[in-house]
Design goal:
349 residues, 53% helix, alpha/beta, 8 strands, 2 domains, 8-stranded mixed sheet
């Protein structure tokens, strides 16, 4: 390449204008995933309209992904009306109700933006979503919503919650804040990381801690805090804690391994005790040594089986993943052409 041409190319690259950080963050595509539970019926049109209006004023490029987790067709007509009049809205209906966490994973899987916000209709105020997205774009960190008015429940629930938080910090190495909700915002790199984990429990804060991600909190108020406890009973909370532990740690199986090793240790001591009786005690019951030795050998094998089986089950649980988290029943898009319809990914000379 001639010297003059090379200098022109280098000079052209050098003077290329670089927009400010805030301008660049607003010029990237932002995805807003809103989960639709059954108890939010009748709120879709008004809430999403307010959200869409706010996003139009604040963001150059955005999309709204509605994930129907009701397991029914309760939102069909409202969704049809929204798609007919609002651009950049997508609708995904799941075959059945998989839970708000798995529905959030489905929305993350469908979202294509550089930053993604997750929320639940009827629980998280739609006015908070642009604020969380702006903070996520500015910091490039994971943001979790923390409700200041989240109900704690009765004494038994609060005690179990504290015990599980202590257990999670000691075993799972994850600090769980009792005020955390489903509201979350994260960059695309974090979304890809969490989708690779594909944890059936779907507890995003646990997965973020497991992946070693640094998180921030966004304090806000729930719209209907009284529904929080009704959506998850005490029994369901216990099952949820068990599932989180089983899906993210082999600690219960490792505890069984320790119990098996302890049993092996005492069984060996018992064997020495039998030998001592045999050699140093003349006045003993006939057949006692043989019967005790037989029982000791049986318990030795049982404890050894506990150790081996628990370790192998733990390794299998770690390595075997890949079952789909959800199944999509229907998918729709806006019928309104927005400003992006005039954009093309080619240039004309």
């Amino acid at each position: 390449m001639p010297g003059k041409m090379r200098k022109k190319c280098l000079r052209a690259v050098y003077i290329w204008p670089m927009p400010p950080l805030q301008e660049r963050s607003n010029s990237t595509l932002a995805s807003f995933v809103v989960v639709l539970p059954l108890d939010a019926k009748g709120m879709l049109a008004s809430k999403v309209s307010v959200l869409h209006r706010s996003l139009t004023e604040r963001f150059a490029y955005f999309e709204v992904v509605l994930v129907d987790d009701s397991g029914t067709d309760a939102f069909t007509q409202d969704v049809k009306d929204l798609l007919d009049r609002l651009p950049f809205v997508r609708y995904v209906r799941l075959h059945r109700s998989f839970g708000e966490e798995i529905a959030g994973y489905a929305g993350m899987d469908q979202a294509i933006g550089y930053h993604v916000v997750l929320a639940v209709l009827g629980q998280d105020p739609m006015e908070e979503l642009p604020l969380v997205m702006a903070r996520c774009q500015e910091t490039e960190r994971v943001i979790f919503g923390r409700a200041l008015n989240k109900p704690a429940g009765g004494l038994l629930r609060r005690t179990g919650q504290r015990l599980f938080q202590w257990y999670a910090s000691r075993t799972l190495r994850v600090e769980l804040d009792p005020g955390l909700t489903r509201l979350a915002a994260m960059p695309r790199a974090v979304v890809n990381t969490l989708l690779k984990l594909r944890d059936p429990s779907g507890y995003l804060s646990v997965q973020a801690g497991y992946a070693g991600l640094h998180t921030l909190h966004h304090d806000y108020l729930l719209e209907r805090p009284e529904l929080w406890l009704s959506r998850q009973t005490l029994g369901e909370s216990i099952v949820r804690a068990v599932n989180i532990t089983a899906q993210n740690s082999v600690h219960p199986l490792r505890l069984l391994t320790y119990v098996g090793l302890l049993g092996l240790f005492f069984d060996v001591l018992y064997g020495f005790f039998i030998m001592g009786i045999y050699f140093f005690m003349a006045d003993r019951a006939p057949g006692w040594v043989a019967l005790s030795a037989q029982q000791a050998i049986y318990f030795l094998f049982i404890c050894a089986f506990f150790v081996v089986i628990s370790e192998y089950l733990g390794q299998i649980m770690i390595s075997v993943r890949g079952r789909p988290l959800y199944f999509t029943a229907e998918e729709r898009h806006s019928n309104v052409l927005g400003v992006l319809g005039n954009k093309r990914n080619v240039v004309s000379e």
